[in-house]
Amino acid sequence: MEINKINEPNSTEYTILIVDDAPVNLGVLSDYLKYHGFEILVARSGENALKRVQYVQPDIILLDVMMPGIDGFETCQRLKANELTKDIPIIFMTALTETEAKVKAFEFGAVDYVTKPLQQAEVLARVTTHLKIRDLTHNLQEQNLRLQRMAKLLSRRAKQLEATHELGQQVASMLDLEELLVQVVKLIQEKFDYYFVGIWLLTEPKDILVLRAGTGKKNQEGASDNPANELLGYQISTRANHGIAAWVYQTGHVYSTDNVNLDAKYLPLNILPEAQAELALPLIYGTEVIGVLDIYLDRSVTFGLEDRTVMQILATQIAIAIRNARFYQIEKNLRQIEEQRSKELTELNASKDKFFSVLAHDLKSPFLPLLGWLDLLSEMVDTASPDKVKRTIEVTRRTAQNIYNLLENLLSWSKIQMKRIEYRPKELDLKMVIDLNMMLLGTVAFNKGIKLHNEVNQSIQVYADEDMLHTVIRNLVSNAIKFTAMGGEIVISATPQSVGNMPYLEVAVADTGVGISPNELAKLFRLDIYHTTLGTAQEKGTGLGLVMCKEMIEQNLGQIWIESEINQGTVVKFTIPLAQN
Asked: Both ends of the chain: CA-CA distance in Å?
């Protein structure tokens, strides 16, 4: 409040208690001070003054020394001994002029004195001065308290940051997800002395939060009184209407309450009977909420801005650490998959060797009738009619053509197998790969009036062998053109997917062609069944293209399959790992 308001008429900022047994003095002085804007209280004796201040504490007291009953000195002494009134400035009004009396007044706690007969202007000046001094003193005291609180907060903040730094260093070095989660909740609980700390993580499909790790305080005997022993594995729906952790996941915002029993969002848990306050923070990676850091206190405490800020920093570190641990697990899984794939490829190669050995043996069979027809033909030249010789020659030709076609297909397949392509994966721009192959096949599509559309997002990066990916895309688009009639359409699209903890991309090559019957679908990708069909413009295929694509996709840790209906078109889909940024 501003001191200059003291001099403004009708101001009621300050209250003065005047204690005097002389009615004349009370009346004159009260009227004068009221005129200058003060609220006035009066007391006719020291006893009466002591009673009044129990109900209303004035800003300053004008106290007469010489009064019946207890005098001004004793009244002042009692006022200063009272916690409610000890800081109220007291100005003595006295007719005593001896130095000893004035000294005594100051010894009893008075801030000043005025002598009788009173000079009203002097009284006003002294009252105004001491009110200003009182206000300045109060301001200094408040500033001092603020500085003390600030120093306390800074000290606490320093301890929090030190603890956060230590926690950050420890979690950053952990790559095993389960060990990471256990150590994180343990470190937070011990460093900040929380009642319970838990981490909820999202499951697949993304509709359940599971408490993956948690720890609580120990009891007084030192034995574990950890509620996490019963809570681990506890599940809550991400769409639940109750539960602070569920709300935090749904909104992605921090939430705290200093009294869980009065909070409508709180979901009571019998195994946390001492819970009083709760702070829950989202674990966010990128724009995705992957879990919730849940903190409980066994006392009603408001989580301040500093607490929330420190825990938010820690929640960010935990989310990053979880991401790193998951990527480590993905890499570990990939190594295991590669090892398993290598084993499978070894077994597959052994099967192929056996397959080709059988084929080499069985190829002899078609030559036996061919040789027989040739022998018969040589005998018929001189004796049979020209028509019979001609029919025999035609049968012989067809037999030779079938053998040639089989050899041609096998040679093409052998060339692919003998190439022994080395798997060299790297980050690739999928849209660019598709655009390049569409450009190479553009003329063929144009000649059939077929439109090619690439709807893959430009920002998508995959992790694959470049040569193999080009070969797969080229074969699938070529097949789609082959089985799509004039004026048709081919569209390539891609959708992010997740297989376990590994991010994949599902690529779809869709055409508006003739479709494939269920019976024919069963023959595709089969190594032991030779299968080929003429295209809509009588185009001829090797019958081995899809088998080759299947092997290359699987070598790139993906899968390939076909969805089709007769006269409704065909969609060939395959998965391929996304690049991990």
From this structure: 59
Structure tokens at 453: 């559309």
**pLDDT band for position 533 (50/70/90)?**
low
Measured CA to CA, the distance from residue 556 to residue 345 in angstroms comes to 12
- Looking at per-residue confidence, does 162 or 338 come out higher? 338
Distance between CA 168 and CA 420 in Å, rounded?
Answer: 47
pLDDT level of residue 113 (50, 70, 90 thresholds) = confident
Q: Which of 97-111, 123-137, 201-215 has the lowest mean pLDDT?
A: 97-111
Residue owning tokens 């895309």: 473
Domain residue ranges in the chain: 7-140, 174-330, 363-419, 425-577
Q: How many CA atoms lie within 13 A of 409 on its CB side?
A: 21
Q: How far is CA 205 from the centre of its chain?
A: 16
Longest dimension (CA), the chain: 171
- Phi, psi (deg, nearest 5) at residue 68: -70, 160
pLDDT in tens, 156-175: 667 667 767 777 676 666 67
Q: What is the DSSP string of 478-501?
A: HHHHHTS-TT-EEEEEEEEEEETT
The pLDDT tens digits of the residues spanning 403-449 come to 664 564 455 455 555 555 577 899 999 999 999 888 888 877 887 89
Provide the residue type at 303 as one letter.
F
For the chain, count helices (H), then strands (E): 16, 18
- Banded model confidence at residue 58, pLDDT cuts 50, 70, 90: very high
**Domain 7-140 bears CATH identifier 3.40.50.2300:** yes
Q: Which CATH number fits domain 425-577: 1.20.1440.230, 3.30.200.20, 3.30.565.10, 3.40.50.300?
A: 3.30.565.10
Query: Is residue 149 left, alpha or beta, with left meaning phi > 0 and alpha meaning psi from -120 to 50?
Result: alpha
Alpha-carbon distance of 250 to 243, in angstroms, equals: 11
pLDDT in tens, 266-298: 888 777 888 889 999 999 988 889 899 999 998
The DSSP secondary structure of 437-479, one letter per residue, reads HHHHTHHHHHHTT-EEEE---TT-EEEEEHHHHHHHHHHHHHH
Radius of gyration of the chain (CA): 47
| Integer Cα distance of 562 and 572 in angstroms | 5
Average confidence score pLDDT of the chain = 80
pLDDT given for residue 419 in this prediction: 54
Decide: 236 and 265 in contact? Cβ < 8 Å: no
Q: Which CATH superfamily is domain 174-330 in?
A: GAF domain (3.30.450.40)
Task: Select from 236, 255, 242 the least CA-distant residue to 294.
Answer: 255
Q: Which residues lie closer than 8 Å to 485 by C-beta, 6 or more apart?
A: 448, 513, 514, 536
Record the tokens describing residue 198, joined without a space.
Answer: 């838990």
User: Alpha helix locations (H) across 54-117?
Assistant: 72-81, 99-107
